[in-house]
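Now for one protein, fold included:
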Amino acid sequence: MYQKLYSKITDALVNDGYIVIQEALKSKLSGELLDVAKHEKDFKRAGISSSFDLHIDSDRRRDKIHWLDAESFAEGEFLSFSNGLREHLNRELYLGLSYYESHFAIYDKGDFYETHLDAFKNSKNRVVTTVYYLNEAWNESDGGELIIYDEENNSLAQVTPSANTLVVFLSEKFPHEVKPANKKRYSIAGWFRVDKS
């Protein structure tokens, strides 16, 4: 079903290390996932982690999260797509990805996430990052853009968090940030990992 999309993502990771795809999946799925996220059931303030601890730091990050667990049909369908991508990346690029984890992220008005890497130096755990946006009728003035930088801190992409936009990039290579949102912003952040779940 998604073979062409999987191949497109794989080629981009090899050639550029990242890709931004608009209208990536079924638009109906994006809407169903937004409905799930809007319930805000069991969402908790996200923390900042290192190899040693996890703590809340609202000066660096202000979103709330809830881990996906296939409780709803929409979550199950999204996780099925993601696991298909994991299998494709392993088959084509021999990455040895062992599992995929993801969470809903809600940014309230004024929330942001400062520039960071998703993988820690000398700790090969997160290999490929995904971000999938759920926001309908999102305008440039609404803020909340994802900015992707290269290793010299040059801006490579500025992504408007519009519904059904998928971003995929190498976790160790691209620092990125979320600019302050001017209204409530919904997304799913995920990581393909090589460690044990």
User: Anything to note?
Assistant: The first strand starts at residue 18 and ends at 21. The radius of gyration is 16 Å. Residues 50-56 have pLDDT under 50 and may be disordered.
